[in-house]
Amino acid sequence: MTKDYAYYRKAIEGRSFPLAMVDLDLMDKNIALIQQQAGEIPIRIASKSVRCRYLLDYIKSKLRHYAGVMTYHGREAVWLSSHSDDHYLMGYPVVDKTLLAEIGLAGKEGKKITLMVDESSHVQLLQMIAEEIDTVFSVCVDIDLSVDFGPLHFGVWRSPLVDEEKLNALLEVLENLDRIKVEGLMGYEAQIAGVGDQVKSQSVKSAVVRILKKRSLPKLRRWRADAVNTIRQAGHTLAFVNGGGTGSVQSTREEKDITEIAVGSGFYCPHLFDNYQDFQFHPAAFFACQIVRQPKEGVYTCHGGGYIASGGVEALKAPKVHLLPGAKLDVNEGAGEVQTPVFYKGKEQLNIGDPVFFRHAKAGELCEHFNELHLIRNGKIVEIVPTYRGEKKSFL
Ligand SMILES: Cc1ncc(COP(=O)(O)O)c(C=O)c1O
């Protein structure tokens, strides 16, 4: 069966709009592809890019090698851990004292949550709270893997741990903190994993990005390997070394120290992940809005549609019309707050009441707009499952 416009229109016939959907057949293919890219290295699911408990469990059940979940909020980690024995790695530092105490108490009850740290104030705060509630925190040290080329910062702004000196200073502080157990090291090479290097409308920029990616790889690999050694020499036993993201699985797995790779976006494959030279996933998650007006021939105005992705503001972050080749958003109106005009002159016969399918730019945001995901298999809705939002959980 061709997964074209008619296929999905039929699948959702009679449903109310807008609706979010995940094609399980295509998600299965994405899971298999990610597993193949990672080889024997376990995958840690980046929950920020899934935001649905049912699908977190589903993906886990399909992965041959699974390391746990990388959460994006401490409260989320506590909530998820109350339902499962998985290991939860908080991908970002938590400095909310009340929440840290909750996480500490969950730890005392046997829940496995590891917190991310990258500076002395993080670990000192954890030590203080651990003393108060009489526990020990498991932590992961986050090193910075961005690479500077002269004035150009190629990467993201996360950890201040950019070199041995900074890492050693943190390790010295840790020597005196008896309630902190260093169990992991993480380095997220965002400039490889999260930056498209084959953007159709930006061929020159993409060529430059490919060169920079290639040049930054040896540097970040050396730093991650050195950091692993330094932490081990300081007497810590690293239970895991985490790296990567959807766009870097194949390069991250080549590093000998890596024990797990974090992946989230690749399961849904939002449209920013169409722009990579080395792989192509299947668009498995999208949403449908209904055509409610036709102001002019070739213009179909849908109700809703403003599901813009976060991050740097640029046209690439807008949702893209899916399955109607040649269809475009209006440059001025874009994906509007309450309505979205779509310009289309293709062969599909569109009428008022029909759906227009859109793919979001990034994976996480879709589930922040919808309470439910309609799961499609073999051209039919087989189940409707709640998103985090549908379970009244919003972590932002
Ligand atoms: C720490 C960390 N690891 C991995 C990822 C990769 O996530 P994804 O595969 O959804 O791009 C991210 C994304 O921001 C991240 O922050």
Features:
single chain; 396 residues; alpha/beta; TIM Barrel; Lyase, Ornithine Decarboxylase, Chain A, domain 1; 8-stranded parallel beta barrel; 25% strand; binds pyridoxal-5'-phosphate
Describe this structure in words.
- With 396 residues, this protein is of the alpha/beta class.
- It has 2 domains: 241 residues, Alanine racemase (TIM Barrel, Alpha-Beta Barrel); 102 residues, Lyase, Ornithine Decarboxylase, Chain A, domain 1 (Beta Barrel).
- It is built from 12 helices and 19 strands.
- The strands form 3 sheets. Strands 1, 12, 13, 14, 15, 16, 17, 18 and 19 form a 9-stranded mixed sheet that branches. Strands 2-3-4-5-6-9-10-11 form an 8-stranded parallel β-barrel, surrounded by 6 helices.
- Helix 5 crosses helix 6.
- The longest helix is centred in the middle third of the chain and has 31 residues.
- Bound molecules: pyridoxal-5'-phosphate (PLP).
- The site of pyridoxal-5'-phosphate (PLP) has 15 residues, from strand 11 and helix 11.
- Pyridoxal-5'-phosphate binds next to strand 11 and helix 11.
Task: Give the % helix.
Answer: 25-40%
CATH architectural type of the largest domain: Alpha-Beta Barrel
In CATH, what is the homologous superfamily of the largest domain?
Answer: Alanine racemase
Q: How many domains make up the coordinates?
A: 2
Number of strands: 19
- Enumerate the spans where pLDDT stays under 50 for 5 or more consecutive residues: none
Terminal Cα span: 38 Å
Strand residues, percent: 25-35%
Rg, nearest Å: 22 Å
Protein structure class: alpha/beta
- Output the number of helix runs: 12
Present as ligands are: pyridoxal-5'-phosphate
CATH class of the largest domain: Alpha Beta
Mean pLDDT, to the nearest integer, reads 97
CATH topology of the largest domain: TIM Barrel
Shape: globular
How does the major sheet shape up? Answer: 9 strands, mixed
